[in-house]
Amino acid sequence: MDNSSGVGVLDKAALVLSALESGPATLAGLVGATGLARPTAHRLAVALEHHRMVARDMQGRFILGPRLAELAAAAGEDRLLATAGPVLTHLRDVTGESAQLYRRQGDMRICVAAAERLSGLRDTVPVGSTLTMKAGSSAQILMAWEEPERLHRGLQGARFTATALSGVRRRGWAQSIGEREPGVASVSAPVRGPSNRVVAAVSVSGPIERLTRHPGRMHAQAVIDAATRLSEALRRS
Fold it and tell me: Are 192 and 198 in contact (CB under 8 A)?
């Protein structure tokens, strides 16, 4: 067997997964693609299905399972966090404001990385903080490119409107002035994964006194540049 690891059962399982990479397959199709005996191909496919690495489509054919996407997302998150530190530090230094990276989790968003302003008045969002998806520029970013049904649901009770999100999509960045917290302004831009899907939002935030009531004029380009660097890092990996 080509590319043998010396662990036969794993090599055969890898053959099954590789065969499904090109699309759904019946058991006969798996046997033909892998060269495995029919009982072996069936036993491995069912075992992989148990671990959610293989699933079935509506016709009962074998397809790649959801666990693979979950593992890929976790690997992408690791790469994102590995790159985020220096990018956020540079963004903080360029803007003079605290910088954050947010990811959506259900109906909330989580700060997964941050670079705090070193002194003076600042907007501190500790890593691990869970914030609302109903207000704030990063919430706008994480919502703006959602599927229509999820977007409609998310707008219920939100501090921003569908029209505002249309503007976000057109500009490629969002701003908020006292939306999440009185006296705080922020600017955010989208980080995109290899499939161009928005996977995170990069933000700078601080007091309105410094960011003014038009924070995007001051910091949109720096935030977009940081988001682009993170998106490129994800695409490279």
Answer: yes
d(CA 139, CA 95): 21
Question: 114: part of which helix (H) or strand (E)?
Answer: strand 108-115
Rounded to the nearest 10 degrees, how much is the dihedral formed by the CA atoms of 202, 206, 212, 217? -20
16 vs 9: CA distance, rounded Å: 11
13-22 long-range Cβ contacts below 8 angstroms, 24+ apart:
13/44, 13/47, 13/48, 16/41, 16/44, 16/45, 16/48, 16/54, 16/62, 17/48, 17/53, 17/54, 17/64, 17/68, 20/54, 20/62, 20/63, 20/64, 21/64
Please give the Cα distance from 44 to 180 (Å, whole number): 51
Contact 27, 33 (CB under 8 A): no
Q: Express each pLDDT in 186-225 by its tens digit.
A: 999 999 988 888 999 999 999 999 999 999 999 999 999 9
φ/ψ of residue 10, rounded to 5 = -70, -40
Dump pLDDT digits (tens) for 82-141. Answer: 889 999 999 999 999 999 999 998 889 999 999 998 776 666 788 889 999 999 999 999
74 pLDDT more than 80: no
